[in-house]
Specification:
alpha/beta, 6 helices
């Protein structure tokens, strides 16, 4: 039986939707490792150090959650190194199609299973892209990021 889970993403920045998903996974699994990844397809607003710091601040009250920078391996390798399943969140059908394809790839290349959690309906519209746009245009964004993470992001000066 698998007791460990990994949740991976660029988390640029971490949102209340991410935090909700991590909290829910922490209630299901004994341990949850959050992997803060680089994605060559994305130009991030925040550097890896800030994203890891913001995620640690967002999850500091969850005793069974740890956060790691994870840019040197595939998600499947990262999950295997933690003897874990991958947990992914979906907000809608578009997310579902994408995550199902990735789950099939991770099973094929890494023999790793994926568990999909559906987002809370009140958070389904929140995305990192949405939060970055608010930040870019100087709009209030504090209610869309976890409290501790807000301070880290604000300090980063974006």
């Amino acid at each position: 039986m698998i007791k460990n889970a990994v949740i991976a993403g660029t988390f640029d920045p971490v949102t209340v939707g991410h935090a909700d998903m991590i909290k829910r996974a922490a209630e299901i699994f004994e341990t949850v490792v959050v992997g803060v990844f680089e994605n060559g397809e994305k130009k991030t607003m925040f550097d890896a150090k800030t994203r890891v710091e913001a995620m640690r601040a967002a999850t500091k009250e969850l005793e069974n959650v740890t956060v790691e920078a994870a840019s040197d391996k595939t998600l499947a390798d990262f999950a295997r190194s933690h003897d874990a399943v991958i947990v992914k969140g979906i907000r809608n059908g578009v997310d579902a199609d994408y995550e199902i394809s990735l789950a099939q790839i991770n099973r094929e290349i890494g023999d790793v299973e994926t568990v999909i959690l559906v987002s809370s309906s009140e958070l389904a519209f929140v995305s990192s892209t949405f939060v970055r746009e608010l930040i870019k245009y100087g709009k209030p964004f504090e209610k869309y990021v976890p409290d501790g993470a807000y301070e880290v992001i604000k300090k980063a000066g974006k």
